[in-house]
Amino acid sequence: MPALAGLVAWLAAAGLASLLLYYVDAKARLEATGKVRVALGEARDEIDRRLETALAVPETLAAVIAAEERIDDPTFEAIASRLVRANPSIRNVALAPGGVITAIHPRRGNEAALGLRYVDVPAQYEAVQQAIRTRRTVVSGPIGLIQGGNGVVSRTPVFLRGPGGRDTRYWGLVSLAVNVDPLLIDIRRVAERNGLRMAARRADPGQRPGEAFFGDPTVFAASPVTTYYPLPGGGRWELAALPRDGLAAMRAPLYVRVPLHVLALLLGWFTYRLLASQGRDRMLAGHDALTGLLNRKSFDLQLHEAMQQTQPRSCALVLIDLDRFKPVNDNYGHRAGDLVLQQVAQRLQQVTHSEDNVYRLGGDEFALLLQGKRGTRELFHLVDRAVEAIRQPVVLPDRRSVSVGASTGVAVFPSGEEPELPAEVFDRADRALYRCKTQGANGAADKLESIR
Prior knowledge:
five-stranded antiparallel beta sheet; nucleotidyltransferase; Beta-Lactamase; Nucleotide_cyclase; EC 2.7.7.65; 11 helices; four-stranded antiparallel beta sheet; alpha+beta; transmembrane; Alpha-Beta Plaits; rod-shaped; transferase
């Protein structure tokens, strides 16, 4: 029972510690998730800062063309150069009347785009058609550019205004290409500043997400914190981020976890030791320290209980007193005497049944409390076997042997219809033992008389 109680205490304490650590870990992950969301907000702000100022360029040119119904090359160059200088992220801005690029700034490095017919580039023509259909700027990318490299491309449709200021006639497009690298550098700085792994990919509504164009693609497979950045025209980017070691690593440190589990283990151990000590104390309080048999205190208690619970002639009390024990102590020493007492205790336990109790009342006095129905012959036979077992030699550590005898007194109870007290039963057995001693029978003499 102490071991079981200790195990239960340890399991309960360990469960409580695990529950506490679970909430500590959950709190740590929640806090980490909040920090990641803040960092993703910073990344969105950085993208906004670059794209919004860049997207003002085609809007400005489109407004000029719509108002003037035309734009000559010097005017285009003047406006475009001023706007591009204000935003270094812009790769180029181009005019495409009727869907064909006829002017581009800066020209150097972008010559390959001149003369491009969007209808001949299916990957880009879909976005062009969407811009014309919705009459709104459409941003797509990152995509591969005709002139080389990757960029985020916007197409702003231009409609000329008729009488009353209404857009009546489609003129063409103002196209803008924004360098991807500055955007990615901004996102990377946010990730490094916050100790995150971050990735980005195209994730248009209703379509399968594209491949990551920034960061480690495996971030998306690791249950990251995500947010979306909407692009003009209906597209969007999915931004994902995780702490470098992952959210699962956001847990209480070892210097918190280990002591809690050690305390749980110690609680289980102390519970075991406490109950074991209490049980040992209770056992010692009711047992003889030398032989391990029940002592006089247990004898008095159990004799009283047996007399309260038994049926007529169902129990017997046998008192046993050792003969020739004092010479063993005198001639061989108290250690030899202790060994004899221990051997006698073991032999008495061997000849009795499991429901019987064996006691050491003190000194060389023993008692048997035999419970359960037994006939007179069976009772005498058991007492004879007990006496015979005690008479067997005891081998000492120096290989010498000693022998003792035993005198017995037996009292069967209840002895009649009149109730008896425990002391009366004990006195009957003690008188029978005295007669056995005085007669020198060295056995169970006068048993019949003691039973009557």
